[in-house]
Amino acid sequence: MRVLADLINALDSTNKTSSKIKAIETFLSESTELDKYWFLRLFTGKRPKRSVKTNLLRQWATQISQVPEWLFQESYLAVGDLAETISLIIPPSKDTIEKSLDQWMQEIMALPAMTEEDIKSYITTSWNQLGQTERFVFNKLLGSSFRIGVSSKTLINAFAKYYHTDSNLVSHSLMSDWDHENLSFEDYIKGEHINANLSSPFPFSLANSLDQELEDLGSSEDWQVEYKWDGIRGQIIHREGETFIWSRGEEMVNEQFPELLIALENINKDFVIDGEIVPYDHEGVMKFNQLQRRLNRKNISKKMMAEIPIRFIAFDILEFDRQDLREFPLKERRKMLEELILEIGSENFMLSQIIEFKEWSELGEIRISSGNINAEGLMLKGTQSSYPVGRKKGFWWKWKVDPMTIDAVLIYAQRGSGRRSGHYTDYTFAVKDGDKLVTIAKAYSGLTNSEIAEVSKFVRANSLEKFGPVRTVKPELVFEIAFEGISFSNRHKSGVALRFPRILRWRKDKLPNEIDDIEEIKKMITG
């Protein structure tokens, strides 16, 4: 635990990527194989489920510290993190204990089978044997919440540097499980026996937002242009008669799209294809909110499959007959993909349409009108490009349509967490509904640090009511809210749901009576 606590302290005390990588290397040099594995799981989101209810942790912490509930709540609001708050209010430890991270995790995973009294005894004893930082880490492990300032890219680069291997191999390895009884951790990281797991996907290749003039890309003949669809990015792995569907979030989503599995039952080829899973009816691609109705369900009824048909729009092939095709030029991969989709012969699988054009100038109007078919814009891909890991500039560009925007007023604000716990960073916005205001969106990004500080000062001086961590404020600050889509929704008071809302800018030039009206906003749905 001490080694992990030192690592977390080091990661949280620097913004330099090189320093973070050095801290991770230090941890790896001082840890056992099993501890390295747990570190990997914790930092890549593959954590065990929560072991103890947070209300019990709060209750036991207040009992030990003899801190009143109201004072604990105020402390929590000031700190912004429950695990850290508990670690701070509990008296300093009297004893010390040394256990490996693996031992801690094994004990924590066994807690659900214990009585509440035994769980309390274990946790309070542990609190009394750990220093403040170690206690904070322990609380994080209990709560199954581990958000520390290190990106997955930094993590991968650190492992690649430490084990003297290629980051692409590390990325691929991390998508499959480690069989520690038959494979060393180093061999696992280096990608040894990587094909042993039939379901292993490839790391996704990602596009950069277009940040230059089209003419600067060179000859239009060297580029393949497709629509950018608003669905779920996915890889379909079909090996030895088994099919696995992976989302970009590294989740296997087979249960949510059974019709795609059925369509491949009699296909005797091995392949990995990349594409977009979209809702698709007789009129074409449906809006994303229809697809949301199918997400995160364990069982999809025949009724739902009929109401929300699914198609996989394939735009790349990464493997065929166990041959890695990622270094092949896109032009060659496209030909192989066309042949495969034709052989599959299912209406659930279709090719991404290549947009025919001669001059760059023709694409502007096509991009603007892409919303008419529920596309987000265009994708530009070099015909000679390989399929790299992550965002490699110059290979793929996404040229999205400009977002929709509305003007709304701030009505609720909540403190942030971690380093932002001293500021109000989580906002709720409203628009007009006749003579009233109706909430329409929450947003957490889009302001500079100085603007956040200015808004926080306004919130403190203009709070009207307090509901736990939330403050109701005078409706005076107007912001322009950008979003990617809008649809009707019975779950929201406004009657509409915005897709990916974020703050575009602070409209200091506008008064509250100039914000948008909900009835006018609803017209954006019907056009």
| CATH class bucket of the largest domain | Alpha Beta
Low-confidence spans: none
**Separate helix tally:** 19
Structural class: alpha+beta
Shape: globular
What composes the largest sheet?
A: 7 strands, mixed
What share of residues are in beta strands? 15-25%
Overall mean confidence score, pLDDT: 85
Measured between the Cα atoms of the first and last residue, the distance is 57 Å
CATH superfamily of the largest domain: DNA ligase/mRNA capping enzyme
How would you concisely characterize the structure shown here?
The protein is of the alpha+beta class.
Describe what you observe in this structure.
With 527 residues, the protein is an alpha+beta fold. The protein has 19 helices and 22 strands. Strands 4, 5, 6, 7, 8, 9 and 10 form a 7-stranded mixed sheet that branches. Strands 14, 15, 16, 17, 18, 19 and 22 form a 7-stranded antiparallel sheet that branches. Strands 2-13-11-3 form a 4-stranded mixed sheet, covered by helices on one side. Helix 2 (17-29) packs across helix 10 (152-162).
Give the SSE layout.
Layout: H1 2-12, H2 17-29, H3 33-43, H4 54-65, H5 69-79, H6 82-89, H7 101-109, H8 116-127, H9 132-143, H10 152-162, H11 167-173, H12 185-189, E1 205-206, E2 208-209, E3 223-229, E4 232-239, E5 242-247, H13 258-263, E6 271-281, E7 284-285, H14 288-292, H15 302-307, E8 310-320, E9 323-324, H16 330-344, E10 349-351, H17 363-369, E11 375-382, E12 390-391, E13 396-400, E14 404-415, E15 424-433, E16 436-443, H18 449-461, E17 463-467, E18 470-473, E19 478-483, E20 485-488, E21 496-499, E22 502-506, H19 518-526
